[in-house]
Amino acid sequence: MEETMTWISRARRSLLAGLLAMTVVGAAAACGGGSGDGDQDQTLRVGVPIRMLSVDPHGTAISDRSTLTLALHLFDPLVASEGGEITGRLAESWENVNDTTTRFTLRQGVTFHDGSPLTSADVKASLDRLFAASTALAPLFATIDEVKIIDEQTVEILTSRATGSLLTNLSMAYIGSKAQIESGEIESRPVGTGAFKLEDFRSGERAHMVANESYWDGAPKYERLEFQEISEDAARLTALRTGEIDVTYSLPPDQLDQVRGFDEVTVESGPSATFYVIWLNNARKPLDDPKVRQALWHAVDFSSIQENLFGESAVLAKAPVPQPVFGAAQLPGYTYDPQRARQLLAEAGYPNGFSTSIQWSANCCANIRPLVQSILSAWKEVGVTVEMQEKEAGQWLDDLLALDWDMNIQDGVVVTQDAEFVLGRLYTCAAKRLGYCNEEYDRVIADASEELDPQERQRKLQRAQEILWADAPGAWPFELTASAAWRDRVSGFGPPPTNVPDFRGVSLN
Which positions make up the signal peptide (predicted)? Predict the structure, then answer.
């Protein structure tokens, strides 16, 4: 399995049907509103597989991957977390004044898209707005007490206690203009400091951007970046094959081989921080009993499901967070053992099983319906009958947050590539995300959060995962590999490990 996780494939096809392909691409560009070959050559068109919700970097949708993708290109954070390493973005340097105070010195000469200079007042206004918002990211910033302006180029962040994940968490905090925050324009017509300027945004349809020629980190190598929402897989892959789009990602596992057969298209896969999770509502009977939850895990042959449904696109999970993530544990899997599952159900008082339901979002996930059907078939064999509930994305989210469900299946991603992003936000007693509460777990994760030594922090994060694995508040069947495909004129791109693609360094040939 580890070989699969580290596997990276590259498939290139020779240039065929030259004039015909040029004709098709040109026609697609014309249909897309392009203004000729020059415009086509300087425009990168991206097929987005999920709904594009917002361009507000601090709004309720900021934890959504499509919103994060747009924010990445329009804004900058103080620091970035890249491959487990913290690098400076708008912050040129930083230092720990003490265990609860971190001082940031801003990069000189950075301007917003409207030409106004970046100052510490913009940083404070942005962070204050984000920290005050009731978003899924709020737990990341719970220990922050104050953002303090020292001078125009210096800010300090004061926390209530030592916070080992502070810098990693700040990589999710994008900086906008104080003037726009005060006027409200940041919600729909934001100006950032990022590599691209927003030209047009239509929620659920498209986002068009133009290059920021004054970008502090070097202007992009092409003129326009256009995101087009194409949630239907067949339509998205057809658009890639015909040249209507240049690149897409999160490819359906059962169509990878088909895409490898496209002329003038490159396909790559690689490790990711994305995973599948089955949450069980621990506040509802009989799922409040650990024996019932463990029985459900033992009842399913996830190895066969992985092989038959996902192939190279997934590997069996070894922990509640994927292996490429900082702090990931390596734990022994729950063996497929239907007899043990029946025994545990009987011990819990359900020798004949029980009935329940499972929900998922209609906007979710590769192979979601056949996956659910396979799992439910296995549960039926041990007496557990489950009603399937596919819900519209908005209704699903409302019900999820209200704990109005029995079981819930979805994919997740550790965007910061730090285990605390998942462990600290979702499974503490205070989180109230799935009715799970274990005081020992809370103590361990709190200790990990305060730990400043990376090795000791990693050990504590791994201990927290051991507790989760044993309690089985849910089941973590698979880690998903990242996949992407792009036409041969695109270079400098690869599969996004967090499903938040970065097109800032792309070149068009």
Answer: 1-30
